[in-house]
Amino acid sequence: MTEEKSRSHGRLGVRLTLKPRDLMEDAEVKGAFSVKVITLFPEAFPGTLGLSLTGKALDLGLWRLEAVGLRAFGEGKHRSVDDTPAGGGAGMVIRPDVMERALQAAGGRGPVIFLTPRGKPFTQAMARRLSQGEGMTLICGRFEGLDQRVIDHYGIEEVSMGDFVLTGGEIPAQALIDATVRLLPKVLGNADSAIEESFSDGLLEHPQYTRPAVWQGREVPAVLASGNHAEIAKWRAAQSLAVTEARRPDLFAAWKARERRPVKGPALRKAIRALVSGIAAGDATEAEDQARALAWIDSGVELARVRKPATPGVQLVSYFLPMDGEHLLLGAHRGSGLWLPPGGHVEPAEHPTDTVRRECREELKTIADFQAEDPVFLTWTQTLGAPETRHVDVSLWYLLRGNVRSLPDFDTSEFSEMRWFRAESLPPGAEPNLSRLMAKLRK
């Protein structure tokens, strides 16, 4: 019997050779997101993944796909991959020794995932997490499943695409790959698409409309043609909430629990005070700044900026620092000339953590992926510039998860460029307090 070959796709970083070979095994991709799929039906791939945006990204080498035929690693003359269940019962179970050989041959990067109805539900958050890694290896289930010993031995994640049963894992694998690959940098033509779509903020997407303005007597909502972007954003947010509450009460309840924050008056001030007092000071300077900030909050003065640039004279700021291991993302700030983390002033009646969410959308065109939703650092800083513009920034610093392999589609009116730096090699002109934060994190 002829040994079944793996089928690979994607052509970034092609290695030239004079030796003829199968075009399906054509390219070695360097640094691209790598997906290995172990399946009894490698001919099912790329399937629909070879079309539209994922297909174009595959051709451009933004990601790489290799389908590994399980049958090639089977036992005996007939390459058997399964056997009867221990203890009896219907159906067949994929053998652990066969799967081990396939996994060793695949040699993929990142987590190993087994598509099975008994797995944990696949979510947008999981797709986002997977997209921030180097790749993944998927196992397409068949028969009655996979021997538990190989799952335990390799720490394989079991993932389900929903409460239903299919004949195999190939269709779920394609759905999981599509949901993940579309979040890779440069795959979507418009970075805002990944922000505004369903589930990106835990809610279903608002209704969509296009031309003609009137169809079958039904009109496009007037607000969408108003040109007032603030009102359009409000309408879409309200519609998103209404649709989610009606169709997915579970998502709506989770959103309410997550977003339940005081929005005005004494309750908001109390919540901000709790954030500040909850920070464990890392050095004497931070302890002094924290005490000063608490006294400022307790004085009853306005905390948020109400008029640019210096009203009031002390203003609350939320910084957020995307990190990936020992790397951190900084931007060359046009106004200050410093390398700064993204962030911005807290708006009146806005919780500082929600400021991070808003600024992350505006400055990085992405969803904030918090390491923790409470700040880890506080600074009290006198700004520079003309006397009439000077003020004090009381800054709360948050940590986000980032991906050193990619740069966000940042706001070029705010930053001239963005780069990843190692924590121990901050650039000249870095925000002076960054070194103190890095020292605190290393403790």
Characterization of the model:
With 443 residues, the protein is α/β, with parallel strands linked by helices. The chain folds into three domains: 7-181, 3-Layer(aba) Sandwich (Alpha/beta knot); 195-259, Orthogonal Bundle (Trp Operon Repressor, Chain A), CATH 1.10.1270.20; 265-442, Nucleoside Triphosphate Pyrophosphohydrolase (Alpha-Beta Complex). Helix content is 30%, strand content 21%. The chain is built from twelve helices and 17 strands. The strands form four sheets. Strands 11, 12, 13, 14, 15, 16 and 17 form a seven-stranded mixed beta sheet that branches. Strands 1-3-2-7-6-8 form a six-stranded mixed beta sheet, sandwiched between helices. Strands 4-5 form a two-stranded antiparallel ribbon. The chain is globular and about 85 Å long. The termini are far apart.
Q: Which characteristics define this entry?
A:
443 residues; alpha/beta; Trp Operon Repressor, Chain A; Nucleoside Triphosphate Pyrophosphohydrolase; seven-stranded mixed beta sheet; six-stranded mixed beta sheet; 17 strands; globular; disordered N terminus
Residues in helix, %: 25-40%
CATH topology of the largest domain: Nucleoside Triphosphate Pyrophosphohydrolase
Could you give me the name of the CATH homologous superfamily of the largest domain? Nucleoside Triphosphate Pyrophosphohydrolase
CATH class of the largest domain: Alpha Beta
Please tell me the total number of domains. Answer: 3
Percentage beta strand:
15-25%
